[in-house]
């Protein structure tokens, strides 16, 4: 016996009520509700549905340990950013997308590390503090930092780079302070050789991200923060293909006026300076 549309939706939603975990039952029922509404409103054809399944199949085929096409799909649909927004703890620094190039194996380096060595790029003194939402310093917080090189590539994309290039973990001091020497990051395109790239091309969408630093800030007793900092005026700052730019995460890269900083890092020439205070919230 065929069921009217609304009855199909009701039955499919109710079918998850048996889940042991009530949150699973709730989330799956809502997912069914909204996916059914999407199918009904768009009057999705069987061919279009099959194209959707083929897209998912192709995404699975290209996904491996180093590359996740589903993660990229979530990013370009704005879903990763929506999850960030709805899970944002009050008073903390805004979070932003993790991206595909985080490496759990980054080395712990001394606070004050020079990550530049002899590679090209505008040298940047990146420093700041980690505070709680009341503005009190968090002693010994950890900064996990990574960025792309001056050629726009991350080590995973560029065999010429050391796997540890322009990435590190740094332990903040007792006042929550940290500093490191790095370079100005560069805009780059998301991977376009998979089904997501084909979708972006068919949609005539921008494939670029604005330049950014990636930072994960963590401290015992606080909600961890995954975020990004974007240079003011970077290309694509108003058209990020993964929707990661948020107010409060766009920062000026200003000329550093203090000659002692270059001396301290043992380098010559002009430096840029980026200063930022990260704020971590406690669990609700
Ligand atoms: Fe990135």
Describe the 3D structure.
It contains seven helices and 13 strands. By secondary structure, the protein is an alpha/beta fold. The chain folds into two domains: 1-44, no CATH class; 82-280, Protocatechuate 3,4-Dioxygenase, subunit A. Strand 9 and strand 10 (225-231) form a beta hairpin. The structure holds fe (ii) ion (FE2).
Write the layout of secondary structure elements.
Elements (H helix, E strand, L loop, with lengths): L4 H10 L7 H21 L3 H17 L6 H8 L2 H8 L21 E2 L3 E2 L8 E10 L9 E5 L20 E5 L5 E7 L4 E2 L5 H8 L5 E2 L3 E6 L6 E7 L18 E2 L2 E2 L3 H7 L6 E9 L4
Parallel strand pairs: 1-5, 2-6, 3-13, 10-11
Antiparallel strand pairs: 3-6, 4-5, 4-9, 7-8, 9-10, 12-13
Bound molecules: fe (ii) ion (FE2).
Number of domain modules: 2
How many β strands by DSSP? 13
Q: Give the topology string: H per helix, E per strand.
A: HHHHHEEEEEEEHEEEEEHE
Structural class: alpha/beta
CATH top level class name of the largest domain: Mainly Beta
Ligand inventory reads:
fe (ii) ion
Q: Count the DSSP helices.
A: 7
Q: Which term fits the overall shape?
A: globular
What key attributes describe this structure?
about 280 residues, alpha/beta, Protocatechuate 3,4-Dioxygenase, subunit A, 2 domains, 6-stranded mixed sheet, 5-stranded mixed sheet, 7 helices, binds fe (ii) ion
């Amino acid at each position: 016996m065929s069921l009217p549309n609304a009855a199909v939706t009701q039955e499919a939603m109710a079918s998850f009520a048996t889940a042991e975990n009530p949150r699973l039952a709730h989330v799956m029922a809502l997912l069914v509700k909204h996916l059914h509404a999407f199918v009904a409103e768009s009057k999705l054809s069987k061919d279009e549905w099959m194209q959707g399944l083929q897209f998912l199949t192709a995404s699975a085929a290209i996904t491996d340990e180093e590359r996740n096409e589903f993660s990229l799909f979530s990013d370009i649909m704005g879903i990763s950013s929506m999850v960030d927004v709805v899970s944002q703890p009050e008073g903390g620094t805004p979070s932003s997308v993790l991206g595909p190039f985080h490496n759990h194996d980054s080395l712990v380096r001394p606070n004050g590390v020079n990550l530049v060595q002899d590679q090209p790029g505008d040298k940047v003194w990146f420093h700041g503090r980690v505070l709680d939402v009341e503005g009190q310093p968090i002693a010994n917080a950890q900064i996990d930092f990574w960025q792309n090189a001056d050629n726009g590539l991350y080590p995973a994309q560029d065999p010429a780079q050391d796997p540890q290039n322009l990435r590190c973990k740094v332990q903040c001091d007792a006042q929550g302070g940290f500093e490191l020497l790095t370079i100005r990051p560069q805009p780059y395109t998301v991977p376009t050789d998979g089904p997501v790239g084909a979708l972006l091309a068919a949609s005539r969408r921008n494939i670029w991200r604005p330049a950014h630093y990636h930072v994960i800030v963590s401290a015992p007793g606080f909600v961890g923060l995954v975020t990004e900092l974007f240079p003011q005026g970077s290309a694509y700052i108003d058209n990020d293909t993964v929707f990661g730019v948020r107010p409060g995460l766009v920062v000026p890269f200003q000329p550093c006026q203090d000659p002692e900083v270059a001396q301290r890092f043992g380098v010559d020439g002009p430096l840029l300076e980026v200063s930022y205070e990260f704020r971590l919230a406690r669990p609700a």
